[in-house]
Fold these 4 entries.
Entry 1:
Amino acid sequence: MNKKEKHKQDLVPLFDEFLETGNADTIVNYLLANSNLPGPRGNLELAVTFAEVVEELFAEAPEQLWRFCSQLAVISADEAPVNDPKEFLPFCGACAVGALGAVSAACYQEALTQLRGVAGDLRWRMREGVAMALQRLIETQSETTLTELEGWIANGDWLAMRAVAAGVAEPLLLREKQTAARALALHKKIFDRIVSVNERKSEQFTALKKGLGYTLSVVIAAIPEEGFAYMEQLIESRKQDKDIRWILKENLKKNRLAKNFPNEVAALKHLLQ
């Protein structure tokens, strides 16, 4: 029995109790006890399993499960600070909100709205939870979700853009060429926003910049011809922009590009000199 199977075996009876009594204390205590926090890596297997169990049971009590997960997702940083076991609760909540939006048309729009709010959280784990949730929504409702995410970019919020970039940077999703093309288009829109703004000293922009330091390479690996052409275009038009240069250099270091496309990477590195 692997970790996810063990967590599912533990969680199912706890959820059965919750659905019968309305008391979620045993679920919450299980998540806290197995969060792996404080520590460098939260228990991702448990978070994924939690979302899967909620998804499987959703038809039995949709309102009760939605309310529980959405309440978890908005637990604040004051109540659940970074690296505290309690931070794992909103992380799991965000993952589950994405899962429920993916399987329920009634919850879809509300899930996106809630995730849009959580995307602005300064806790990095919460931003990762939003990215994982978006990936689940893209998996089941690709076209609609990708179109919705364009609006997250248009409002100019750096952390919302970071959520979009991380959300589409999933190799399994990018196997679908249309999704890969849309992911590259979303990245282009993000870069357009960046180059239109001179004030880039905020903590929020730094988070976006660091995220783009890897997400662009994930997308380009899936759609290399168009992706490398766009990188070349960025270099030619924004070679003196230190933030753009940093992002491009970081992506060219990634093995997914350096090992699989050595000639293209070498040519772009030469242009950056």
Entry 2:
Amino acid sequence: MFLRNYWYVGAYSDEVTCEPLGRVLLGEPVVLYRTEAGAPVALEDRCAHRLLPLSMGKVIGDAIQCHYHALEFDGTGACVRIPGQERIPPQMKVKSYPVVERDNCVFVWMGDAKDADESKVPEIFGKLCQDGWSATKVHCHVEGNYQLVIDNLLDLSHLATVHASTVGSMHVADMANVETERDGDRVKVSRWTMDVPAAKTYQQFGNYESNIDRWQISEFFPPSYFRINNGSAVAGTGAREGTGEKPWDFWVCHGITPSTQDSTHYFWHLGHRLWTDNMADVEQFYEQCYGVVGEDIAVFEAQQKTINLDPAAPMREIGYDAGPLLARQIIDRLLQEEAAQKSGKAA
């Protein structure tokens, strides 16, 4: 089950062009493209005639043409042309999804179209679009359930082992002071690891010659968004008060869009203030971060394979699971509320 009355990232802006882009979002086939004026469109990726994916076709003007029998559908989902036939049956249409383009993302509303409210488009990614900042992004298709990604981002103790060669060390698991807070349906997990040697990435790009105080502040926003601040300063110089010496930090924003029950679209977007004029160093930092993403995906996909062998096998909890458990409880409650609301409307 998925939360539907929300905006989800369907694609990055530069992925949506005059060439059709097919994606499965929340179990529904969706095709995205741009009109001649550049406006994004999201339609059901399934021709109403013989069910071929419209993403196999091509964009003609503001419409998309099916590759099979050349039927054309406009941005509202209405069929506007059937070759050799003047009359167009009223049922010859496909579903149209509300879309909003903001902060280099194309957001798709997956619930009832009449409930779409642009004021509820998440403002997670806007922080990374600031003057004087550098940013990079990737989209990955993950063969794993989206809640595995949420668990991962609310328990960053995994850096100690999964990312030991770059951003992690055992100190972030053994010595972290962890604070978990809930604000309505949002969850915030703050990790402070004080007076420890810098992990490789922090030593290399933060240029530390002594121990550091390190923070990892992870914020979860339903249905499945994250904003994470990772940073450090020279140990004992006031990092928690915001006055630490040689501060070095970066932000990562995550859009986690379920594809199917056991696959996920993972939109990962990193941004930071420029700490150097040497862009080769920046690119090297990015390469390390891409490696971190790949290491996480390997974990998600291995978990999913194991889960598929025995879906009833229980997950048992440890102390660091307070954040992931809160997020799962919030999602479960919101799913129940959506189901009750839908049932009430049907009645």
Entry 3:
Amino acid sequence: MGKRRSPFIYILSALLSGTLLWLAWPERGFSPLIFIAFIPLLWLEEKFLSHETKRPGYKMFGYYYLSLLTWNVLTTYWIWYASDVGSIFALAANALLMSLIWLIYFTTRKRYGTFIGYVSLLSYWIAFEYLHLNWELSWPWLTLGNVFAHNPEWIQWYEFTGVLGGSLWVLLMNIILYQLIKTFFKKDTIPKISRLNTLVLSLLIVMLFLVPLLLSKFIYERRSDKGDPVKVVVVQPNIDPYNEKFSGPAADQLAKLLRLSATMIDSSTNILIGPETALAEGIWEEEIFIDKNINTLRNFNAAFPHLQILVGLSSYHAYEPGEKIPLSARKFKDADQYYDAYNTAMLLNHGDSVQLYHKSKLVPGVEMMPYPRIFGFLDNYTIELGGTSGSLGTQAERTNFITSNGTKIAPAICYESIYGGFMSNYIRAGAQMIAVITNDGWWRDTPGYRQHKDYARILAVQFRKSVARSANTGISCFINQRGDIMQETKWWEEDAISQTIYKNNIITFYARYGDYIGFIAAFISVSMLLFMGAKRTLGW
């Protein structure tokens, strides 16, 4: 049995793991630290497995929670600026879910040994990340594969695996490197066997580290933008979301957007892109052609024969008698009729053509209350980001915007851009380029908006699509099909930038099959848990 150590050492190990995860995270972090970030936790659990102790799972859960809460708080503390109480719940709940996954793994390893335990860790964690991409409590910001967002030259193979492939790489590197360290320092092993194990693990680590990097370098150096040119202008009006955007005159905000646009648009410009809720004053979709702000946009558009305008707005739709009423609908106070509120993107073509897309990956606690029967008591503490309150409406299908010359654009509103599997539906439907419209001013000058910008680089790699990104307060940018930033604005400055990007019809392996790694991990996890449950129940 192993020697007991002071709980202080255990606490330091848990804190070290959480701190390393934070230090590895973009955009100021040092990414290679992610390959050793879980080693203190793996060492810590080894100590609890190697000597007898009462309720080791409960004690390990406490250390897991301390570590993962440290990571969550240090990396995403900036959501505090939107809601103090709401952020405390979000950070604590996410760390709790992560800790439960590690606890289930600890229990599996304790009962079935090291090999099965590590297989279960890989499966459980990636299944958890897959779940986090698809359920109502979704918060995939800390998906491990996102850690390389600032280093797209490392992850060109994401076009085959998506970010979950990166998560698998991170976990495997931590596990094998820990085994190598443990073998190197193990004293009760026959020297020849120890040297052989060390050599095998060393070769495995070198291969596991170098093969993905060399493959990525090979792809990166041979990849160039493919397709037909599209000249795009992106506008950053820089309207303070806390003090101006939802209280200032909408006409003045639109005038500012058009004034900045006019400095960059010429007769050859194809697409103008403005940010999320650029038209902050709610517009009834049934009356869209008589709305004064829409008509101002149409008049501006008429001066440029090849121009299409893509902007965000807040919109409403009133349901007629006989229409199916969704759960998100609200009832008019003075009429027996229902309506939905949306966070909307709009493409305005010449003439009377308007296309609308309703944001469908809604932020829990901001744009929707997840599982309201369970969490309805938290309504008073939801994060307030202006505009409409309460749950917003969505749409069932991913529909591309189609310009008058046939260019198909995948619209991503705010953090929809970090959902690779979700965005793959656009690509399979024929999207040729991606437009990300967002606000990003809610988080003030913190790593939050910079991380969000870098996550769009992953999007470009996964689908080999050019990305045009318009952020109200920054950073707006253009990203090529390798994930390189070609041009970007500064934070909290009004600006407009122009770039020729390229549209194409490429459908990558990942675009075709989505988060298949997550599905496989979920299948393995459920199978393992069912087997273990049956074994324990039936006494096999």
Entry 4:
Amino acid sequence: VGVDAPNSIDQKWLDELADDDSVVVFTETTSNLHHPTFFPSIDKMIATLSDEEFKALQPDILMTFGGLIVSKKIKAFLRQYKPKSHWHIDKHKANNTFFCLDRHIKTHPNQFFKDFFKKVTHVTKSDYKEFWTQIKQHRSKQHKLYLETVSFSDLKVFSIILKTLPKHTILQLGNSATVRYAQLFKMNKTLEIYCNRGTSGIDGSTSTAIGCAAASKKQTTLITGDLSFFYDSNALWNNYIPNSFRIIVVNNGGGGIFRILPGHKNTDNFDTFFETKHNLTAEQLCKMYNFEYTSASNQTSLTENLSKFYNETESPKLLEIFTPSSENDDILLNYFKSIK
């Protein structure tokens, strides 16, 4: 399930899918879809699978709905180990994301499932879901163990800030590394989660979040990286920002995602032209636009700031978290090794 609005699929159809042990449902942070037997955190699930495991888990039929997919790993998996058939359910369009689309069903998923389940006369006994469930349980255990020992970093920061988000509020995620880190964690199912996927890279994440906060009248939190935030700082120049609006900037001193991606990290021009290293902070922007500013550079100060970050205030607030750019990529890469 790709990007989707909250509550877009009726619960009874989710329960029907969950009851079939030959069906697994992969969701993403931006799918806004929750069920105890579904499989969120796709990258955590499949990043360390062997070729033998991939072959065993190759689906017969792939059924997709919702918008664009964030996970590059699920794209690579399903492009290499193609299903026999791929159906996409959407009233308007169907992206051939996995290069095997053979049926576009032009209707809303609720209508599709209503018609589809009428025609299901029996369910085949299968260990397919159980296989995936065992992997899920193992990954969750290793995930917890690694985070207990990891030093202060982007990964550690996300493990902390995502737990403190107020229930029944809106979360806006910056594009690039931010949404990918968020994908590794279990999210509170009361949150409405959005991200500018499939638009223009890091452009406009702050503008979108402020527009959402102003239009929805709901408490909204934007979690974003430093480059994305600075790139769209003009979004702060308006008179419609609610006092309940919150921004968390994870400042790792540049485009940290380029340290994770293979290819250029050890080249001469990496710092300047790929990572775009800098020493900027958001403090002066907050003074200019009347945001209450606070910062953290270790776990103690972060926990202390978060304890009062969502309290009512007379102006919007920004929390800037400084993490070590030279360590973040190794910590993340070691994370995937540790959960195997």
